[in-house]
Write a structure and sequence with these properties.
Blueprint: H1 6-19, E1 23-26, E2 33-37, E3 43-51, E4 54-63, H2 68-83, H3 88-101, H4 105-118, H5 128-146, H6 156-167, H7 173-191, H8 204-208, H9 222-231, H10 237-249, H11 253-257, E5 270-273, E6 288-291, H12 294-307, H13 330-344, H14 354-367, H15 372-378, H16 385-390, H17 396-414
Antiparallel strand pairs: 1-2, 2-3, 3-4, 5-6
């Protein structure tokens, strides 16, 4: 019996599509070699065989990647293995498993990051700055120690060494590193590259000892805040304006550090933070709309001018310019200048971090009698209880009024003329 030709395979596919049901044809040159064509037009080669009294089959590949001649040659090779007593179906699964188990930690991490990158636009996906942080952490601490080893061979002791190495980079890094490793190996279990997670029973305190409780956020008081505002002139202008915007809007450091000029519209009176950059993504849809008072709009205009054609509102080095295309290094610049100004002014206020500006904003919005719902939306916090389900309003008008009220208070305080509730919010008594 002559073997099936490529022309006959194409005819078989056409028949399957025309009749709307699968078609089969035996090749005839190699025992068990068969071509099947589905009603959707997909054709596959496989070989049927009996071993130990059981009927089995093994797929060779799809047409046209596997033409008739190639499929026939591969079938001959498999037939010789069958005749030698090899269960080729079981052998294929074993080879596949061996390939999975040969995946290194770096390869596994690359798969994990590729998956994370695809999911960044989803509510439950990884945030861009987290993605960058984790990649950097992996390259610095994980890869040098265990990256080249097969993921299936990694022991808890090796993970412990990685976490201890990360400890030298900062107080928070051991926790982040352990979490990162745990997620990588969990991914490995999911795709079959690992049979166990070496991080499963590891406890951070057992590795690096008891940890200090989380730092309590600082909210500057009346005198401290006034002194702080009056000393901001010591900063280079781009950083001064960045700090003023953070204090006014209450945004997180990542939000302003990664802000692009295209986010400010129309006429720079509205700042639209893309949904993928919001921390509160699981409970929100669309961008976070930040209405800006007229004075803040002028700050934005000035920052755009200082950026000198850069796509970011705050380039890496807005003082020197040079057309840089990367966002501001959030902690080494903003935090550094905040510390420097404090030192140069004689330590008139408690030491603060960029996030403490957000805490200060939150505290004073409450002192200025801004209502709870407006404050929550002002800071892009999730609402609680039934409000989170039924109240979908962004309170833009109320938030703009609150921003104007807060800005007026800051201006008065900087001038030494602090006043209380000088502007009434829409709907307020």
């Amino acid at each position: 019996m002559a073997g099936i030709t490529d022309k006959e395979v194409r005819a078989l596919i056409a028949k399957a599509q025309r009749e709307g049901k699968a078609q089969y044809q035996v090749d005839g040159t190699v025992p068990g070699l068969t071509i099947s064509a589905s009603k959707t037009g997909i054709a596959s080669w496989y070989i049927r065989y009996r071993l130990a009294g059981k009927q089995k089959e093994r797929t060779i590949g799809q047409y046209p990647a596997w033409g008739a001649g190639d499929a026939r040659e591969r079938a001959k090779e498999l037939r010789r293995e069958i005749d030698g007593g090899v269960d080729i179906a079981v052998e294929k699964q074993r080879q596949k498993q061996e390939a999975l188990l040969a995946i290194t930690v770096d390869i596994l991490a690359a798969e994990y990051f590729a998956k994370a990158e695809k999911g960044m636009t989803l509510k439950t996906g990884m945030r861009p700055h987290t993605y960058k942080q984790r990649k950097s952490l992996h390259e610095r601490y994980v890869s040098p120690l265990i990256g080249r080893f097969e993921a299936s061979t990694i022991t808890p002791a090796q993970v412990v060494n990685v976490v201890k190495k990360a400890e030298a980079g900062g107080k928070t890094l051991p926790d982040i590193t352990l979490t990162h490793c745990n997620l990588i190996f969990a991914h490995g279990i999911g795709n079959g590259a690992c049979t166990a997670n070496p991080c499963r029973d590891l406890k951070l305190t057992a590795i690096v000892g008891p940890q200090e409780p989380p730092k309590q956020r600082v909210a500057l008081g009346l005198e401290e805040l006034g002194d702080f505002l009056r000393e901001l002139y010591r900063m280079p202008r781009p950083y001064e304006l960045a700090v003023r915007l953070m204090l006014l809007t209450g945004v997180r450091i990542n939000t302003i550090a990664e802000a692009t000029i295209s986010e400010f519209k129309p006429d720079f009176a509205v700042w639209e933070v893309p949904h993928e950059r919001r921390k509160n993504r699981r409970h929100t849809t669309g961008p976070f709309i930040i209405p800006l008072p007229a004075q803040a709009v002028e700050w934005v205009r000035e920052l755009i001018k200082l950026a000198d054609g850069n796509e970011y509102l705050l380039p890496v080095n807005p003082i020197r310019g040079a057309g840089l295309r990367n966002p501001l290094s959030k902690r080494t610049t903003v935090a550094g200048w905040v510390d420097r100004v404090r030192a140069e002014s004689g330590g008139k206020w408690r030491r603060i971090t960029p996030h403490d500006l957000r805490s200060t904003c939150k505290s004073w919005l409450s002192e200025l009698r801004v209502d709870y719902e407006t404050r929550q939306r002002y800071l892009d916090h999730a609402l609680e209880g039934m409000d989170a389900i039924y109240d979908k309003s962004d309170f833009v008008e109320h938030r703009l009024a609150a921003a104007n009220k807060w800005l007026q208070f800051l201006n008065d305080l900087e001038a030494g003329e602090a006043r209380g509730n000088v502007i009434k919010l829409p709907g307020a008594a």
